């Protein structure tokens, strides 16, 4: 059926959805691998339109667009984002520990499609087992595993590029314009499964954690209701109040536990008062500038807040509103408890609407 239904989105609003009833057989269609080493790059990239592969780090940007090339790609450096910097989320960590060889095979495909000559895998230093697994997997390749400090938000693509290469991507340019492309490890594995086995992207690894009996990672089909995952994790604890999709910094409250897993769902956190205390009432801005000190992209959050609050959206744009990565660092350090990121999202939405 096609009808409005609740979806996992910060707005909490319903949207048009297709509801499928499975046949219960859990059987694949016939698969056909591709000889990608001996196939034209454009043909391979065009075939990705049918794969369903998007950025599985959370942004869900279509992968065929990031790999699109006319044979004159200027990308010489491929960076694999395995930082996974938010607390609670461990799906990429688990993927590296258990499927390191698949990641390396996926990297070879992405490297071929882009024509990149240098490859780096960025991993935070709080994942020693994943680091070791990837170092073993790349031992006979030119791929470099780079250990970066555990410092939020190192998982942001621009921050990771700076940590690995020491380069700053200008705010008005994309990474590809300076010869760099970045992919999440989950996306890389999906590329391997599609080209080497003919499997479209119909599932992903999801961390289920927080106020559940047995926190763990699951490989989950898209469309699976979150209630199924909570049950698989031993069920929720009695004082669970709600669920969060994503991490505690950039995630958002879900409107219902019955919403489905989507491609952006890297983590589901069962929240409770002892894990996430109720936010205090916001107070007036005291212009202490702690938010500016915390901002990883060197914006002026307090100014953006005033512009958004007063509906002065053009001024907010002039202050590089769209450079904000919505990491939540400013809100976290604000002594007045102002939900700054909500104001920035509101301003962006109003600008897009116009």
Notes on the protein architecture:
This protein has 354 residues and is an alpha/beta fold. α3 (91-98) packs parallel to α5 (128-137) and α4 (100-114) packs across α7. The protein folds into 3 domains: 54-197, NADH-ubiquinone oxidoreductase 51kDa subunit (Rossmann fold, 3-Layer(aba) Sandwich); 203-271, Ubiquitin-like (UB roll); 290-353, no CATH class. It has helices at 41-47, 63-66, 91-98, 100-114, 128-137, 157-165, 185-197, 226-232, 290-294, 301-309, 313-318, 329-333, 340-353, and strands spanning 2-6, 14-18, 77-82, 118-124, 144-148, 180-184, 203-210, 216-221, 242-245, 252-253, 267-271. Helix content is 32%, strand content 16%. The chain is globular. Strands 8-7-11-9-10 form a 5-stranded mixed sheet, sandwiched between helices.
Features:
alpha/beta; 354 residues; Ubiquitin-like (UB roll); globular; Rossmann fold; 3 domains; 32% helix
**Under the CATH scheme, which architecture of the largest domain would be assigned?**
3-Layer(aba) Sandwich
Helix vs. strand class: alpha/beta
Listing every helix as H and every strand as E from the N terminus to the C terminus, the arrangement reads EEHHEHHEHEHEHEEHEEEHHHHH
Write down the overall mean pLDDT.
94
CATH topology of the largest domain: Rossmann fold
Brief summary of the model shown:
By secondary structure, the chain is an alpha/beta fold.
Topology, element by element:
Blueprint lengths: L1 E5 L7 E5 L22 H7 L15 H4 L10 E6 L8 H8 L1 H15 L3 E7 L3 H10 L6 E5 L8 H9 L14 E5 H13 L5 E8 L5 E6 L4 H7 L9 E4 L6 E2 L13 E5 L18 H5 L6 H9 L3 H6 L10 H5 L6 H14 L1
Parallel strand pairs: 3-4, 3-6, 4-5, 7-11
Antiparallel strand pairs: 1-2, 7-8, 9-10, 9-11
Helix pairs in contact: 3-5, 4-7, 10-13
């Amino acid at each position: 059926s096609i009808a409005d239904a609740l979806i996992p989105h910060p707005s909490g609003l319903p949207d048009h959805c297709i509801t499928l009833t499975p046949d219960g057989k859990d059987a694949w269609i016939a698969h056909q691998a591709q000889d990608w080493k001996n196939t034209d790059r454009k043909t391979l990239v065009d075939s990705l339109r049918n794969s369903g592969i998007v950025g599985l780090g959370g942004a869900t940007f279509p992968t065929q667009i990031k790999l699109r090339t006319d044979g004159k790609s200027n990308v010489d450096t491929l960076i694999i984002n395995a930082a996974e910097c938010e607390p609670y989320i461990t799906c990429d960590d688990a993927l590296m520990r258990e499927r390191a060889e698949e990641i390396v095979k996926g990297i070879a495909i992405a490297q071929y499609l882009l024509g990149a000559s240098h490859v780096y895998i960025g991993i935070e230093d709080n994942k020693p087992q994943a680091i070791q697994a990837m170092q073993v997997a790349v031992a006979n390749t030119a791929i470099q595993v780079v250990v970066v400090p555990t410092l939020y938000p190192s998982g942001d693509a621009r921050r990771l590029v700076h940590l690995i290469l020491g380069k700053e991507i200008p705010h008005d340019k994309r990474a590809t314009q300076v010869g760099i492309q970045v992919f999440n490890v989950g996306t890389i594995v999906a590329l391997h499964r599609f080209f080497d086995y003919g499997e479209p992207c119909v599932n992903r690894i999801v961390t289920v954690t927080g106020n559940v009996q047995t926190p763990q990672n699951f490989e989950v089909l898209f469309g699976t209701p979150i209630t199924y995952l909570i049950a698989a994790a031993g069920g929720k604890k009695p004082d669970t109040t709600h669920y969060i999709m994503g991490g505690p910094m950039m995630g958002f409250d879900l409107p219902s536990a019955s919403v489905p897993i989507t491609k952006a769902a890297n983590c589901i956190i069962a929240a409770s008062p002892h894990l996430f205390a109720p936010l205090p009432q916001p107070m007036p801005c005291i212009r202490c500038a702690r938010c500016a000190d915390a901002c990883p992209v060197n914006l002026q959050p307090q100014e953006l807040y005033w512009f958004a609050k007063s509906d002065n959206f053009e001024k907010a744009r002039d202050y590089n509103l769209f450079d904000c990565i919505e990491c939540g660092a400013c809100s976290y350090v604000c002594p007045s408890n102002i939900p700054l990121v909500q104001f920035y999202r509101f301003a962006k939405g109003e600008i897009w609407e116009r």
